[in-house]
Amino acid sequence: MPLTELLPLVKQLSHSDRLLLLHFLTSELLKDASLIPLGNQDRVSIPNLHDSFEAAAVLAKALAEEKAAIHG
Q1: Which of 7, 35, 49, 60 matches a 20 to 30 Å C-alpha distance to 26?
Q2: What pTM, to 2 d.p., does this model score?
Q3: Alpha carbon distance 14, 16 (integer Å)
Q4: What is the Cα–Cα distance from 30 to 41, expressed in whole angstroms?
């Protein structure tokens, strides 16, 4: 189906259906480019520093050292 025929149909979709279509198209483009969609990152083993207490401790120590160096 040519895009010129598809666009009028897309305009008739509800707002939520257009968002779902956008999500679908984005996922398809990411798959074609061999990229991982953001929603699928939890399926891939990636270290998460946001939940790391060790990372928080290292950051707190670095901030304390910087504060001591600046303010004496």
Answers
A1: 49
A2: 0.48
A3: 5
A4: 13
pLDDT digits (tens, 9 = 90+) for 21-67: 998 898 888 888 887 666 655 554 555 556 677 778 888 899 999 98
Residue 10 to residue 37: CA distance in whole angstroms? 23
Contacts of 26 (CB under 8 A, 6+ apart): 37
Backbone φ/ψ region at 54: left (φ over 0), alpha (ψ -120 to 50), beta: alpha
Closest CA to 26 of 13, 14, 40: 40
DSSP annotation of 34 reads T
At 70, list the tokens: 């600046």
What is the distance, to the nearest Å, from the Cα of residue 63 to the centroid of all Cα atoms in its chain?
28
